[in-house]
Design goal:
With 131 residues, the protein is α/β, with parallel strands linked by helices. It has a single domain, classed as Response regulator (Rossmann fold, 3-Layer(aba) Sandwich), CATH 3.40.50. It has five helices and five strands; from the N terminus they run E-H-E-H-E-H-E-H-E-H. A five-stranded parallel sheet has the order 2-1-3-4-5, sandwiched between helices. The radius of gyration is 13 Å and the shape is globular. The two termini are 15 Å apart.
């Protein structure tokens, strides 16, 4: 099954690298180089199946984006939000958990194929619960 994925990171190289991985598997990918751009898209477009969200970004960080997503109920309950960051301190993971993140992947510890497989696992695990 093909999924719609939003990638959010200020690093163009990483966006391109992850986008290639997901697109090669047949998924629809939209890349955003900042939090404000993804929030704008979520407010007007149909929700993707998952948003992979970096934490450290200029303008508004990933936690700020996640807070707005939750506050405004963007994307609806089926959309999964996965933090994809090098910020792996326990306080960061705890904050993400408090904001009801669906997954937390440390970039430095995961190769692109692992990011891909974990994202698909999170989406499909949720789909099976709803079935």
């Amino acid at each position: 099954m093909a999924y719609r994925i939003y990638l959010v990171d200020d690093d163009r190289f990483l966006l391109d690298m992850y986008a290639v991985k997901f697109k090669a598997a047949g998924h629809e990918v939209t890349a955003f180089q900042g939090g404000m751009a993804v929030l704008e898209a979520l407010r007007k477009d149909p929700a993707p199946d998952a948003v992979l969200l970096d934490v450290v970004m200029p303008e508004i960080d990933g936690f700020g984006v996640l807070e707005i997503i939750r506050k405004e109920k963007l994307g609806g309950p089926a959309m999964k939000v996965i933090i994809l960051s090098n910020q792996g301190q326990p306080s960061d993971v705890e904050r993400a958990t408090t904001l009801k993140v669906d997954g937390y992947i440390i970039k430095a510890s995961a190769i692109p194929s692992e990011v891909y497989s974990e994202t698909i696992r999170i989406i499909e695990q949720s789909n099976q619960k709803g079935a």
